[in-house]
Amino acid sequence: MFGSRWHGVIFPIHESTFRKGLTCAAKKAGITKPCSPHSLRHAYATHQLQAGMPLNQLQQQLGHQSIQSTERYLHWSPELGHQGTDLLANLGGGLSWQHPII
């Protein structure tokens, strides 16, 4: 997704380079909460589902081998703007939200 080109070859940027750039961008945007590549990825996945993206399409975008890995983004949260609507309710197939066992 992100990379640098050298002699026509694209090389991926190092994780720490991305993390530093993200931290700098967050500061410039006035974001005071901790920001990490994981939180950015999670926010992206959550918002894509809220916008109606099919789960299997999100699975492909995130590069998950198993659909179960993608299903962890199927949570609901009133503060995210969908008034507590269960995102699983409209998917069919008998899926339902279950709290993780800790």
From TrEMBL:
What is one process in the GO biological process aspect for this record? Answer: DNA recombination
One Pfam entry for this protein is Phage_integrase
The GO molecular function terms of this record are: DNA binding
Superkingdom, according to UniProt? Bacteria
Tyr recombinase domain location is 1-86
> Keyword annotations for this protein?
DNA integration, DNA recombination
Keyword Repeat carried by entry = no
Q: Which SUPFAM superfamilies match?
A: DNA breaking-rejoining enzymes
Keyword Cell membrane attributed? no
Q: Which PANTHER family does the entry mention?
A: PHAGE INTEGRASE-RELATED (PTHR30349), TYROSINE RECOMBINASE XERD (PTHR30349:SF90)
Q: What is this protein called?
A: Site-specific recombinase, phage integrase family
